[in-house]
Amino acid sequence: MAESYRQWRASRLGEITDALEHRLISDLLGPLAGERLLDVGCGDGLLASQLARRGALVTGLDADAEMLAAAKRRMAAPYHLAAGRAESLPFADASFDGVVAVTVLCFVRGAERALAETARVLKPGGRLVIGELGRWSLWAAERRVRGWLGHPTWRAAAFRSAAELHGLVGAAGLDVTAVRGAVYYPPCAAAARLVAPLDPWLGRTTTLGAAFIALSARKPKGVKSKVASG
Known about the structure:
single chain, 230 residues, alpha/beta, Rossmann fold, seven-stranded mixed β-sheet, 10 helices, 7 strands, 41% helix
């Protein structure tokens, strides 16, 4: 998996796409200096490293030992690493000022439980930012076909609309503050180069056709988290 990430980022399509997604996540997170931030499903640590360079006190969590090893090698800026799953976060209640999770819920069977756990570890007033694979895009269509043909990653993935993500986050007791889209071009480097300059404008206009949907939310002050059972 770590090698797949490396190859993707080395491609022109991957470079453009990741830059758009990370800029959107960064915009929704806002100022980070001195804040305790949890990166759920941190993978090889690229985003965690970027957030740490912005002054956040980052903890990266992943269930894959290979990914954690890659994240440890990447530590250009200091951050902590922990092994664990999104459905059962190994942290105390109200431990973090913010939580970010990028392309995590689509691979978690218990998305409702994962969001309940996220709400639990957030401090009152803390913010959540998630980035997910949009349901209505050419990327999703291609991935569905690959899943039907037996690709293990895409066979297990769940693609959601902005409305579905809004509902999941709201059910966890969090107040949605913004929903944005990104990556409005097909999975083609030439199309990416052409459309990328318009992508931020499109993302503020609609999420229809977006391959990536990002949502920000806040935990209300004075409200207890909904802890999932089971």
